[in-house]
Amino acid sequence: MGEQPRRRKGSASFFQNTDCAHFPCHKGVSEDEFNCLFCYCPLYALGPRCGGRPAYTERGIKDCTRCTIMHRGESGVARVRDKFGELADLAREDEASPRGQETGQP
Question: Which pTM was predicted?
Answer without folding.
Answer: 0.67
